[in-house]
TrEMBL record:
Entry protein name: FTM protein
Lineage of producing organism: Eukaryota, Metazoa, Chordata, Craniata, Vertebrata
GO CC terms of this entry: photoreceptor connecting cilium
Residues annotated as domain RPGRIP1 C-terminal: 1-162
Organism per entry: Ciconia maguari
Pfam families, per the entry: RPGR1_C
Stored PANTHER family: PROTEIN FANTOM, RETINITIS PIGMENTOSA GTPASE REGULATOR-INTERACTING PROTEIN
Amino acid sequence: EKIRIEIISLGLTESRIASDETIQQLFIECRLSNFLAEETPLSLPKPASGQRIHYNYSNVIHVDKANNHARREYLKSMLLKPDLHTDSLQFTVVSDPPEDEQDLECEDIGFTYVSLREILRKQRDIIEQDIDVFDSQDDSAVIGKLKVTVEALHALRSVYEECRDD
């Protein structure tokens, strides 16, 4: 029983990000509340407009009863107490400073969400889907598309069945 997250690729639209010379390298962080934080092992050069950079990064979160009780309990509480911010995987696009400017901080430039509750409600995993990435300084502005896969339906069903049995 597991949740598989794949960060496939990122494309940027014409936006302040595309034209900002200080933003050169990008990596993606994936977070589920305080329960999990992963990031792509590589930061890649910012893509030109109309092009994509390919991370092809995959991660598996095990949520089996035997070895990952705390994670299962977290998923249970998430399904029992709906809250917009805890039932979603958050993907953050982060600008990695260039090698010669390591005094600069990493900067969050965009974000997007995938709702685990929606996956359960629709009974459908998200497979190689492009989702809008919003500007971290203006959450009404779309700065690009992130292609992701989130396979969680089987694990969520199992946890949901357990909630009903308790």
